[in-house]
Design goal:
Layout lengths: L6 H19 L6 H15 L19 H13 L3 H27 L1 H13 L1 H6 L6 H20 L3 H17 L3 H16 L1 H8 L3 H22 L3 H15 L19 H8 L3 H14 L1 H9 L4 H17 L14 H11 L3 H4 L1 H27 L8 H10 L5 E5 L4 H6 L5 E3 L1 H6 L7 E6 L3 H8 L5 E4 L3 E6 L7
Parallel strand pairs: 1-2, 1-3
Antiparallel strand pairs: 3-5, 4-5
């Protein structure tokens, strides 16, 4: 007897498969992906599973190690490739989706659970983060796990769910830090005040043994990291979690720049991260608020503690970051699980279950997966459209002779460091002036439109050999033998 899968499973499998396949096509680009991939590569190379390293000499105190552990293990098993670097994020997203499905099916039924997963998988940020080297998919997995475990402990009490809640907290502490505790405790406070029935199940949780388990799983790494590189706890807990939050222009970042934004900008990021569903939700909400009858029905939903749970879960993250001007759109990711269930419930109406409504839903489901996959294909064929040094580094490595080096003027991009396996180094104009007598050639990458200027400074013609989106590669030949 052959197992027949419903069209729903085929659609979800196709969306996840598209992201899985495209992970191997696209080079690591921009800043975050190659930076985190290089941290994981150094972890695998050095065998140091306690301290992530930003460079071989500089420890990386900006993030806990969970994502780097998984990526370093993937490098060990699959080799140092883009696919290996991105696979852990895809698996973390898959794990969060499985938990979300169990929760939504138990509380709202099979149809809502299926719709929620398709909405979640096709949100812009979820689809993109699932195939990117980021720490956020691991935080999203942890928050989803914790919120689902807490809800399921009330619906179907079992040690697996009750202790799973505390394991999830530990996972979040190792994925992102104490922010995990804030994102889980925050939604709970108003719920326990407004819905006394939720307090009863909450009190039945094994708090003493559960918190002991959470501390046992997470705290040892923090203590070992501080012991190995003193100063970590102060930078990570005070700098990354407090100063970065309150100071949009925080200058203490050791590894980049602060993401200065206007306070409240997180709500714009919500619409981008949840695209296209966030715009649909906004339109539906405005329509219900304007219509008196629908407004009254919307107000009555506050009496439903299950929907209130989802609402608090989905809203707390953007509310929390409203007062911070130091944000990224990836901060929205932990809220999208609950949002997707709410969206599935909102769309469970005759207008969206009719044939025309189903066609509209299908189009919205496939919008982001097809757009991102199409973009991936285009930039794979036209690499100059992407901010990566992969192809320039490959050209240099292929043509370099013994003793020759690849250097970047003033700054080495993260992708160049990753793809050169740490061999690309930095030089200044002063350094180049002192290298005039080198016996071997120097492959120099410099910003575009700087070639003629540098030729004049060095008083020798320089020929462009290869271009990336931001740099041009040239060869400064070595001195003739016998000179």
């Amino acid at each position: 007897m052959r197992l027949r899968l419903s069209p729903w499973w085929w659609a979800l499998g196709a969306i996840l498969g598209l992201r899985l396949a495209s992970m191997a096509w696209l080079p690591l680009a921009s800043t975050s992906e190659p930076r985190y991939a290089e941290v994981a590569r150094l972890m695998a190379l050095k065998g140091d599973w306690i301290t992530p390293w930003f460079t071989p000499e500089l420890p990386f105190w900006g993030k806990p190690p969970l994502s780097f552990w998984t990526e370093a293990i993937a490098f060990k098993l699959l080799g140092v490739t883009e696919f290996a670097a991105r696979l852990p994020s895809w698996l973390a997203t898959l794990g969060g989706m499985a938990l979300l499905f169990v929760y939504a099916r138990a509380y709202f039924g099979e149809r809502i659970a299926q719709g929620a997963l398709l909405i979640y998988a096709s949100c812009a940020l979820v689809f993109m983060a699932a195939g990117a080297v980021l720490t956020d998919p691991f935080l999203a997995l942890a928050t989803t796990w914790a919120m689902v475990a807490l809800a399921m402990s009330a619906k179907a009490p079992s040690p697996a769910w009750r202790y799973g809640f505390f394991v999830a907290l530990a996972v979040g502490l190792l994925a992102k830090g104490p922010l995990m505790l804030v994102l889980v405790a925050g939604p709970m406070l108003p719920l326990f005040i407004l819905y006394p029935g939720l307090r009863a199940s909450f009190k039945q949780m094994p708090w003493f043994s559960g918190l002991a388990l959470m501390l046992l799983l997470s705290v040892p790494w923090y203590l070992l990291a501080e012991q190995k590189t003193p100063g970590f706890l102060n930078y990570f807990l005070v700098g990354e979690h407090f100063l970065r939050f309150i100071d949009s222009g925080w200058t203490g970042d050791l590894y980049g720049v602060a993401h200065r934004r206007m306070k409240g900008a997180i709500w714009g990021e919500v619409l981008v991260a949840s695209f296209p569903w966030g715009l649909v939700a906004l339109a539906m909400l405005l329509r219900r608020v304007i219509n008196p009858l629908q407004r009254a029905a919307l107000w009555q939903t506050r009496r439903d503690p299950d929907k209130a749970y989802l609402l608090a879960w989905s809203l707390f993250t953007p509310v929390f970051f409203t007062v911070s001007g130091n944000i990224l759109w990836t901060y929205v990711l932990p809220a999208l699980s609950a949002f997707s269930v709410l969206m599935a419930l909102a769309l469970d109406t005759p207008a969206f279950t009719s044939k025309s409504g189903q066609r509209l839903r299908t189009g919205l489901i496939w919008l982001m997966p097809l757009l991102v996959t199409g973009y991936t294909a285009v930039v794979t064929l036209q690499p100059l459209q992407l901010k990566t040094e992969k192809h320039l580094v490959a050209y240099a490595m292929q043509h370099m002779q013994a003793g020759e080096q690849l250097v970047y003027l003033d700054e080495v991009p993260f992708s160049a460091t990753f793809y050169s396996r740490g061999q690309a180094s930095v030089v200044t104009l002063k350094d180049l002036g002192q290298m005039s007598g080198r016996a071997t050639g120097l492959y120099l990458a410099l910003p575009k439109n700087s070639l003629d200027q540098l030729s004049g400074v060095l008083n020798q013609p320089l020929t462009p050999l290869f271009e990336s989106s931001e740099h041009v590669l040239t060869l400064i030949p070595g001195a003739p033998s016998g000179k």
